[in-house]
Amino acid sequence: MSRVKLHRFADNATRPDIVEPGKPAFGQLAGRWRTDFFQQDNPLVLEVGCGKGEYTVGLAQRQPAQNFLGLDIKGERIWRGSTRAEALGLANVGFLRLMAHQLTAHFAPGELSEIWLTFPDPRPRDRDRKRRLTSPRFLNMYQTLLAAGGVAQLKTDSEGLFDYTLETLAARPGAHIEVLTRDLYAETDPAFAAAQAIQTHFEGKYRAQGVPIKYVRFRLG
Q1: Range of the domain at 188
Q2: Which stretches does DSSP call E strand in 23-77?
Q3: pLDDT tens-digit profile of 45-62?
Q4: For the purposes of burial, counting CB atoms within 10 Å of the CB of 146, is it exposed (0-12), middle (13-18) or buried (19 or more)?
Q5: What phi and psi values does residue 116 have, to the nearest 5 degrees?
Q6: Residue 201's pLDDT is what?
Q7: Rounded distance, CA 3 to CA 136, Å?
Q8: Which residues sit opposite 214 in a β-bridge?
Q9: Residue 47 β-bridge partners
Q10: Number of C-alpha atoms within 13 angstroms, CB side, residue 180?
């Protein structure tokens, strides 16, 4: 492991906006994220697979009356998001180093108001279907963790993952798609404005290559 990574991991261990294995709060915040971690009761939004935290931090900037958590397993990625949030002086954003399939052990039922899935790994091989972040097992988790009226949102460049997600939602009792598009930035309807407002580095690269961005907002019942 490089010295740079070791230094960043050491930083993570001291940063109050990062919750990770080895810290006293890890595994102890289910049902108490707003009161104990953010120390106020604003709605809690989770980005699953936040990468370098661009989207989580962008959401926190635009919506100061909500709390935002970015989840990723890569400590160096989380370090980047935390560093940006600190530079911007944001108090409504944090990061959790965790595998996505462990979600229900770290959040209480109904604790989340919203979930974002931004450019997750499409897992194109059939044998990896269960690992897709919109597979039935993950949708079950999201449904448990979302409060009544809570929504989930997916942005992706992957046609395959998008089709799979729509098929999975169509087969799921109680699921309801609110809006969807296969070319997000061609839309002029205000219903898409929030999803258009933040663009990650890789999203910009996809667009420059002529790859349309797919988007869907849905409820799970």
Answers
A1: 3-219
A2: 44-48, 67-72
A3: 999 999 999 999 999 999
A4: buried
A5: -110, 135
A6: 85
A7: 40
A8: 156
A9: 70, 116
A10: 17
Q: Torsion angle of alpha carbons 106, 61, 161, 128, nearest 10°?
A: -30
CATH number for the domain harbouring residue 59: 3.40.50.150
Identify the bridge partners of residue 67 per DSSP, sorted by sequence position.
44
- Token pair for 85: 């949030």
Q: How confident is the model at residue 184 (pLDDT cuts 50, 70, 90)?
A: very high
Contact status, residue 95 vs residue 28, Cβ threshold 8 Å: no
pLDDT for 67 equals 98
Q: Which residues are catalytic?
A: 121
Q: How many other CB atoms are there within 10 angstroms of residue 5's CB atom? A: 12
Q: What is the pTM of this model?
A: 0.95
- How confident is the model over 19-32, as pLDDT tens digits? 999 999 999 999 99
Amino acid present at 193: A
Q: Please report the beta strands in 119-189, taking only residues with DSSP state E, as ranges in sequence order.
A: 146-156, 176-181
Q: Answer yes or no: are the C-beta atoms of 156 and 162 closer than 8 Å.
A: yes
- Which pair of tokens denotes residue 202? 């890789």
